[in-house]
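Collaborator request, handled under Task 6.
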Amino acid sequence: MTKNKTKLTIQSFHQMASLVSVKLSSANCLLRKSQVYPLIRSAQLIDHLEEEAPALTISKNAKEESNPEFENWLNNDGLLTSWLLGTMNEEALSMVVGCESTFQIWRCLEEHYLASKKEQELHLKGLLAVKRSDGESLEDFEKKFKNTRDQLAAIRKPLDDLDKVFQLSRVVESRYQPYNLAVLSKAPYPTFNQYTTGLQNNERDL
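Structure tokens returned to the collaborator:
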């Protein structure tokens, strides 16, 4: 069991909860997860998503005593559970009937919404291979590309920075070929931010 001393208060809980504005539904589970998971991790409460509750009692000097970790866990998990339930639509709530902890809710949602991760991974990687459509601005295309790779990260299949560079270079038009040849022919390769900035500069010059 991951041990942490973090204790949520009502005030700190509401400050954290205000950072997530997306209401959970079947259509946005990946986006919601990409918001919630890092937030709970930053609060050092990731064990609530990944592990069951600590034992109610512990053995000490051959005697059973109350586990001091359990009371703190109970406080934190109660607030996290209330938050998750309060930000779901009716469809999502129906999926988690009977769940009594953050861990149970999270696992239940993953089983329903993220069960076919391999199929989702293949689908999302297929979207990354789609070239920019006629009339679509480079800015809009890059936003769409970012949204797809964010969804990959949400199912724990992230692209590393160099993969993102070469994947995007394959789907921009041939008119960017001179730029691609100039920056991708040999190492050191640009970061993804450097590469997209260069694309935008080329867009203005074309």
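The cover message to the collaborator said: "The mean pLDDT is 84. Residues 68-86 form the longest helix (19 residues). Please let us know whether this matches your experimental observations."
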